[in-house]
Amino acid sequence: MSIIIALLVFSFIVFIHELGHFYFARRGGITVEEFAIGMGPKLFGFHSKGCEWTVRLLPIGGFCRMLGEDGQADDEKKAISEEELDESVHQITGKSETTSDETSVEPLTNVQGEGSDNNGKPVKRQLQGTAFYEQSVWTRISAVIGGPLFNFILALVFSFILMALSTISTTEVAFVAEDSPAEAAGILKGDVMVSIDGHRLVRPREASIYINVPAGDPVDVAVERMGADGTIDTLTYEIKPAVIEMDPTLPADESENYYQIGVGYTTVETNFINVLKYGVLECLSWIKIVFYSLGLLVTGQVSGTALAGPVALVSEISSGYERSLTEGLKVVVANLSFWIVLISANLGIMNLLPIPALDGGRLVFLSLEAISGKPIAPEKEGFIHFIGFVLLMALMVFVMYNDILRLFGWG
Q1: Does residue 381 carry a catalytic annotation?
Q2: Segment 365-383, tens digit of pLDDT
Q3: Fewer Cβ atoms within 10 A, N terminus or C terminus of the chain?
């Protein structure tokens, strides 16, 4: 059951992403040919309002396929030529499209959907004026950016839910543990944690990340402290974190140690205003953490093997769900909300990266068109996106391989 819940959560996030593309595409007059959850072979689907809605075998993503998304050349391959159209109409009606008879059939170039000839063979009908490439550049930009935008909205909504169901902590120090590195350095109760190693804190959770990444090396902790005269001073302390947890079954140099400086944080009342305020901060915090993590990856401070894919995410969601079951429905919903915020913020940011085949890659080409006033040749853009797609699939295989190794304890 926990695996099913995890898959539903992951699929729900993907659905909202694709719904963003769908909403802005339809709003801009673009025909959406298929709305798919999952990748690979189609399991089942149905047609509604000119769109095919499908569920596919592999729950690792989804797509919203728009008519003419890859340019005019691609759309022309789907449209039949005038001669083919005239022949098809003749087969269906027994009359030529160009006849002057009052009962003649109108040209199919403005009709949506598909027809079929006398033999049941589908006849493609060109949807004139509703293709992606036929719309203004700003309409196309909105259709592309709609997916990530809906992910950020989803992350914000579930940040509110998470704050409403959780104890809300602030960055103000509530206590300093006795004999801790923080006490030795001079941190006091009432200090407000401002930054660690120059990384400004939005939410207290970030402190743990910035302390643990250096793996025990000293960190610069900046705090704000109110003086006796009411003025606020910013003080910076160099603190060497203490190891508080390690796996005793492993050698010290192989254990994944956990570090902390020994402080706890104050909490505030869970009311409407605080839920809104700290919900926004929670969402912004996770977006900030995604960018920070990408920076660690690019600079080599984190190995590529640390990347987590769908397999790892489903496993973590499933494990968290099972643990929270013993603590009641409120904790279950809070736990699932946490994962929705985390994954949705990640998905929104990752899709905006200027990488071919991703939404960000398409936005680069559309931005160049908006600036120059001329579209990039569809063949060139399509080739670049194809190369990007191949590389992304290779990365996906690598990430899933690492996920499986971690899942079975082999890596």
Answers
A1: no
A2: 999 999 998 888 888 888 8
A3: N
**Burial of 157 (C-beta count, 10 Å sphere; 0-12/13-18/19+):** middle
Task: Using alpha carbons, select from 203, 168, 381 the residue that is nearest to residue 281.
Answer: 203
* Residue 98: predicted pLDDT: 43
* Residue-wise pLDDT tens digits, 161-187: 999 999 999 999 999 999 999 999 999
Could you tell me if residue 213 is left (phi over 0), alpha (psi between -120 and 50 degrees) or otherwise beta? alpha
pLDDT tens sequence across 19-31: 999 999 999 999 9
Nearest residue to 68 (alpha-carbon basis) of 131, 114, 124 = 131
Query: In the beta sheet, which residues pair with residue 62?
Result: 37
How far apart, in Å, are the Cα atoms of 152 and each of 10, 32, 156, 162, 348?
A: 15, 22, 6, 15, 6
- Within the chain, all domains assigned CATH 2.30.42.10 are found at 169-269
pTM, entire model: 0.80
Catalytic residue among 18, 134, 206, 381, which?
A: 18
Which residue's entry shows tokens 């049941």?
Answer: 120
